[in-house]
Amino acid sequence: MPAYRAAPAGKTGLPVVLVIQEIFGVHEYIADTCRRFAKAGYLAIAPQLFVRQGDAQSYGEMAKLIAEVIAKVPDAQVMADLDATAAWAKKNGGDKAKLGITGFCWGGRITWLYAAHNPNLTAGVAWYGRVVGQSNPRQPKNPVELAGAIKAPVLGLYGGADQGIPNDTVDQMRAALRSAGKTFDIVTYPDTPHAFNADYRATYRKPQAEDAWGKMHAWFVRHGVG
Sign (positive/negative) of CA torsion 158, 164, 169, 171? Predict the structure, then answer.
């Protein structure tokens, strides 16, 4: 499985962050995110989680990309691939006791799922990841249904004006996590659209993105990743 990685040169024992792509694959924005983590002292690695289903970057039409690639990616496959990525990172300069995950949009949902999947995860940060939805054989559970199984502290970062992730669904996740007694925080930025951290898109909102990036780093430090 191909992956993009970035780390401080010549260093080992580094905290590891799995960086999970949007539906557009591991393109320059995701690679740049890995480099930003590396400059902060992390080993960051972004596996190409769609590689078995197709090349996301070859599609120019979002609906076709979703139908022909994204919808065919099983959650179980993604969880196994992330386990393999974490194992590789720990054998190649990473600290096995410091494993974080962060993801954007599609990757935000995966972040929630992985926090329920891997008991060795230290902490996670989900950027505007969907938490409810229609189940199917490839995606049998939504994050809100797995709130009680989450094994690591997770920070959620959401836009209050996100047209694809209604505020009430985020509130459902808050309530489920609170009811389950989990360590979490969910920040919703008012009047802020989906993908507000994506600096290559019109949805980018610099003040919110910078604030959220700082909150993410603080979360990782507070919970033992950074």
Answer: positive
